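General statements about sequence and structure are easier to judge against a single worked case. Part of our work consisted of pairing the sequence of a single chain with a tokenised description of its backbone. The amino acid sequence and the backbone structure tokens for this protein are reproduced below.

***
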Amino acid sequence: MIQVMWELVMSSEMIMMIPVLRQRRGRSFARQGDAARDRQDWPHAAAAYRNAVRLIPKRTDLWVQYGHALKGMGNLVDAELAYRRALSAQPFNADTHLQLGHVLKMLNRHEEAAFAYKRAYILAPAWQPPLAELNNYHIDYRNQVTLPTN
């Protein structure tokens, strides 16, 4: 009887219903994803991050890591979706705009990539990576409007 109860408690449906268990299990998957990412084991990293975002979808950092893993596997369309999901919750993250630009460039969607790089530049005008990408596109970024700092 105790075994049956334990199996019910630990079932994936039950984990989805209990926030504390979802958070704990999601963090465990995130750690597995981090370890796989550090080994550049993209398929295992993507699977772990996919499980993590399923359990704790509000963690935008995990959506970005999921996008990185998908990009590392060459799954560019899903990487784009992961980055866009992160941006929908945190639209002022310059690094995520930069990563989205990289994926769009790899998909040969250069106009969209340049737009993502411009957003990254506007959000972080002193940061060199978006400037380098904009220079590659020969875009005059100096006349862009920057956001106020306060």
Summary: The chain is about 75% helix and 0% strand. The chain has two domains: 1-90, 96-150. The mean pLDDT is 88.
